[in-house]
Predict the 3D structure of the following.
Amino acid sequence: MGESTRIKRALETAFSGPSWHGPSFMENLRDVGEIKARAKPLANAHSIWEIVNHLTAWQVFTLRVIDGAPYATLQGDADWPPISGSWESAVAGLESSHATLLAKIDQFSDDKIKENVPGADYPWRTLFRGIASHSLYHAGQIGLLKRACGA
């Protein structure tokens, strides 16, 4: 099995499961509606909707870098986009960017995936594995936020 296949598997299990550790990101979103998504039950914590927007922003950013945009760490509203539109559209955008990212990874040979991301000091495989870890990190946050909302 090639490196790209292993990375895609890690991204998919972190994003939609099944995961050995517990609920994946999308499994945690399964019963979240707009009211719960907007809620801020913990002081100084992002809402579930903000977290969804944040993950989408990083996936879309990564897609742009794959297509040749310069790499730079996201900051401010680019990193944590404000809530807008509908909750359903936010989730659909996340799912769409995830599917597109998986398709783009298919274009990476095992040699290319070991090359550094242009403008970064680490390889593509580190960026892609980081996205999987990022999804798991925020899946845990969503689990805590749901509990704080009484779910």
User: Anything to note?
Assistant: The chain has one domain: 3-148. The chain has a mean pLDDT of 93. The chain is about 60% helix and 0% strand.
